[in-house]
């Protein structure tokens, strides 16, 4: 035991049997023993007139859920002093109001002064009520809670320290949640933070240091510190340039400016960081987060344990490369530089990338071979996904052709004037195309997606964040390297970033200040998860590709089997593959119907019967479980309709607004279908597989959108652009256009500049 300013403290804790702290957030789900520290601002209401009962109930529910999962939970709670202060103030006000009313009348009530309350008295008044509330709440989950009050001396008297340790271990063994607090009724007033200059010592003078001391003493895996701020900022929260620090490393405290302490309680952020760093050195992982925000407090503890990006995570392991936040900022800056280049320069980058795809073919295929071998050895990828993962010489050649097509068509995409209006004399308005900003593209098992999307982002002047699947890591790495090599010819290497950190997709979808548009490329489940997880960021894409082909009574025999075979069998895993075949009722038991069935059997397509189709058959195929099924394999549903009107109604009820086809020789019927089917792509006598950016002449696509806002269908360069308005005047003010002003609005449409069609 040593001393500092008359306060005893202990040097570095004993070595931990359970090893070092977790290096990454994703490892927090393995935490067995967890301490949750609740700050006074979390426990008490914002008006300081009682406890935040709803918030406390939510915290108790989360702790109970984790306890019932087999974890060992401990709570270090503040709030006794603050709660006691509120109770005593209430009693004093009540007492004063009675005396004032008796002696001076009601007019002097407003002049009553509340005396300064001594902290130890407040703690004595508040501790019993606080614990009673915890006990009542935990009882609702059939969990027992136990109160432990400690002081600084309890850690420095060896016998008391052993007793405390033994008591806590026994409580945890019996599945009891210990609720620990400093015994503020007997402790001396807090000393100044004289030991905050280093991290090798700590004294128990507030609940932050108590939580850290207990966490290390009990060999805890995780310490969660909840306060009224989102986490640690690089400057005081609320200041203009304050940024939340996602991961904080020992030694970074020099770059942080600390603000004032919490509205109630004794600690501030500086004390929390000191305690967190001390616990981290003792082998306990730490997260500081907001426990008061109404939108997240209901799941903040469970989110942290699940490894989600909440608050500030303290780690001793610095990543080799930039954080995803830094990558987002680099993509933003690089994208703006990219947009400022001349169109010919952006096209030159894309042409260079196309050349690299063919020149570096052997290296690309070698990396892809590693991915395929690893995927096959793990045996976790289905055959359709393995096909998507595979690259070949022909695929690379097709990619290069598509990229050159993009380069050729991108000459006037950015900065193109689409409207000109003369507002008044010498006051001209233009609407011009501009990049959206920073795109986040998340894709699975498709390394060929990386150069396609990169080329479209370059052509449209957008910054780009790419998040590929782990199964394509080697392929994505070399393709991204080649993309950056191409970007380097005009100094915009940072515009396209590949996210290689252990970032979860859900966490990326929360970066609304860095990302302007999310584009998922993968399974319907991936798209649905991203649409659900995106917080304030629009998502472009489709969650399902339930594509229909309707065979009309006037269909050509020669066209029917050919179009159906191509739509279903050419690439059944594609989102634009046929999933439901609608047959006109009059075609049942005809030679044409038999040809369709025979062709599907030859192609080994498993048939599922719709309810109406099954009713016509004595022995039918397996009846479909749902008419809203995307099979993604050699399977399809067949259903019967009475005509084109019912076909349209069926598509609207069960389709996904992706791609739908009619096969008929009747032009009137075809036009009715084309005009009435409300899907992104509607075809007449053509395969569903034409729904593709390359086949549409867009060079490539970032995906197919079924959204009704912005882009729809295959999304190429045009879908990655938005507009801004440019107004050029000469000392114009709105008051000149008032009733008695000197100027009048003209609103004349002006001719557009000639487009470059070379």
UniProtKB/TrEMBL annotation:
Aspartate/glutamate/uridylate kinase domain segment(s): 32-290
Coiled coil: none
Highest rank taxon of the organism: Eukaryota
Keywords tagged on the record: Amino-acid biosynthesis, ATP-binding, Kinase, Mitochondrion, Multifunctional enzyme, NADP, Nucleotide-binding, Oxidoreductase, Proline biosynthesis, Transferase
GO biological process, one term: L-proline biosynthetic process
Subcellular location: Mitochondrion matrix
EC number: 1.2.1.41, 2.7.2.11
Domain Aldehyde dehydrogenase: 324-588
A GO molecular-function descriptor: glutamate 5-kinase activity
Catalytic activity: L-glutamate 5-semialdehyde + phosphate + NADP(+) = L-glutamyl 5-phosphate + NADPH + H(+); L-glutamate + ATP = L-glutamyl 5-phosphate + ADP
Pathway the protein takes part in: Amino-acid biosynthesis; L-proline biosynthesis; L-glutamate 5-semialdehyde from L-glutamate: step 1/2; Amino-acid biosynthesis; L-proline biosynthesis; L-glutamate 5-semialdehyde from L-glutamate: step 2/2
Record-level GO cellular component terms: mitochondrial matrix
Assembly and oligomerization: Can form homodimers/multimers.
PANTHER family for this protein: DELTA-1-PYRROLINE-5-CARBOXYLATE SYNTHASE, GLUTAMATE SEMIALDEHYDE DEHYDROGENASE
Family, per entry: In the C-terminal section; belongs to the gamma-glutamyl phosphate reductase family. In the N-terminal section; belongs to the glutamate 5-kinase family.
Function: Bifunctional enzyme that converts glutamate to glutamate 5-semialdehyde, an intermediate in the biosynthesis of proline, ornithine and arginine.
HAMAP family tied to this protein: ProA, ProB
Protein name: Delta-1-pyrroline-5-carboxylate synthase
Native source organism of the sequence: Pterocles burchelli
GN (gene name): Aldh18a1
């Amino acid at each position: 035991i040593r001393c500092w300013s008359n306060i005893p403290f202990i040097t570095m804790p004993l070595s931990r049997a359970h090893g070092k702290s977790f290096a990454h957030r994703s490892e927090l789900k393995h935490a067995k023993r967890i301490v949750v520290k609740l700050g006074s601002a979390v426990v008490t209401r914002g008006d300081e007139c009682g406890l935040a009962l709803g918030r406390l109930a939510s915290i108790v529910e989360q702790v109970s859920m984790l306890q019932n999962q087999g974890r060992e939970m401990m709570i270090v709670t503040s709030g006794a002093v603050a709660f006691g202060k509120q109770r005593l103030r209430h009693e004093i006000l009540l007492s004063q109001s009675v005396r004032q009313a008796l002696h001076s009348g009601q007019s002097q009530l407003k002049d009553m002064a509340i005396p300064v309350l001594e902290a130890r008295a407040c703690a004595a008044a508040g501790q019993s009520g606080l614990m009673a509330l915890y006990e009542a709440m935990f009882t609702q989950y059939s969990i027992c809670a136990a109160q432990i009050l400690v002081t600084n001396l309890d850690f420095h008297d060896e016998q008391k320290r052993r007793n405390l340790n033994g008591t806590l271990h026994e409580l945890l063994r019996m599945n009891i949640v210990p609720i620990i607090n400093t015994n503020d009724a007997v402790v001396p007033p807090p000393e100044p933070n004289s030991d905050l200059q280093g991290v090798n010592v700590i004294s128990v003078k507030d609940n932050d240091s108590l939580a850290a001391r207990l966490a290390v003493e009990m060999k805890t895996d995780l310490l969660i510190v909840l306060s009224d701020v989102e986490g640690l900022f690089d400057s005081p929260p609320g200041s203009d340039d304050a940024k939340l620090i996602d991961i904080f490393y020992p030694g970074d405290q020099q770059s942080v400016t600390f603000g004032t302490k919490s509205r109630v309680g004794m600690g501030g952020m500086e004390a929390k960081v000191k305690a967190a760093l001390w616990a981290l050195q003792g082998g306990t992982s730490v997260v500081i987060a907001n426990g008061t925000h109404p939108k997240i407090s209901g799941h903040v503890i469970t989110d942290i344990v699940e490894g989600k990006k909440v608050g500030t995570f303290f780690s001793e392991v610095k990543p080799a490369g930039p954080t995803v936040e830094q990558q987002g900022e680099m993509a933003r800056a690089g994208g703006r530089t990219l947009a400022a280049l001349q169109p010919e320069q952006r096209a030159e980058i894309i042409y260079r990338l196309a050349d690299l795809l063919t020149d570096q073919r052997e290296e690309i295929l070698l990396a892809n071979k590693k991915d395929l071998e690893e995927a096959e050895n793990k045996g976790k990828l289905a055959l359709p996904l393995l096909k998507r993962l595979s690259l070949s010489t022909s695929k690379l050649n097709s990619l290069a052709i598509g990229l050159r097509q993009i380069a050729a068509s991108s000459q006037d995409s950015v900065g193109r004037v689409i409207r000109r209006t003369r507002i008044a004399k010498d006051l001209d308005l233009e609407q011009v195309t501009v990049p959206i900003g920073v795109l986040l593209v998340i894709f699975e098992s498709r390394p060929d997606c990386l150069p396609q999307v990169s080329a479209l982002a370059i052509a449209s002047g957008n910054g780009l964040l790419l998040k590929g699947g782990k199964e394509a890591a080697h392929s994505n790495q070399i393709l991204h390297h080649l993309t950056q090599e191409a970007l380097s010819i005009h100094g915009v290497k940072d515009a396209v970033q590949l996210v290689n950190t252990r970032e979860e997709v859900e966490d990326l979808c929360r970066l609304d200040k860095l990302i302007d548009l999310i584009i998922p490329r993968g399974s319907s489940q991936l798209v649905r998860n991203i649409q659900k997880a995106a917080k304030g960021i629009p998502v472009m894409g489709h969650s399902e590709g339930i594509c229909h082909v309707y065979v009309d009574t006037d269909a050509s025999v020669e066209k029917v089997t050919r179009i159906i075979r191509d739509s279903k069998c050419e690439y059944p895993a594609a989102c634009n593959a046929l999933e439901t075949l609608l047959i006109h009722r009059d075609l049942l038991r005809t030679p044409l119907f038999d040809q369709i069935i025979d062709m599907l059997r030859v192609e080994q397509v498993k048939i599922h019967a719709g309810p109406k189709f099954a009713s016509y058959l004595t022995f039918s195929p397996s009846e479909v479980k749902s008419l809203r099924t995307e099979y993604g394999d050699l399977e399809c549903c067949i259903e019967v309709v009475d005509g084109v009107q019912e076909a349209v109604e069926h598509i609207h009820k069960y389709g996904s607004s992706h791609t739908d086809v009619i096969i008929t020789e009747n032009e009137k019927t075809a036009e009715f279908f084309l005009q009435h089917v409300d899907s992104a792509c509607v075809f007449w006598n053509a395969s569903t597989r034409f729904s593709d950016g390359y086949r549409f002449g867009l060079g490539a696509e970032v995906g197919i959108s079924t959204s009704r806002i912005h882009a729809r269908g295959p999304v190429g360069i045009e879908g990655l652009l938005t507009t801004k308005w440019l107004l050029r005047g000469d000392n114009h003010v709105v008051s000149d256009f008032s009733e008695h002003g000197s100027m009048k609005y003209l609103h004349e449409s002006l001719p557009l500049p000639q487009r470059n069609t070379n």
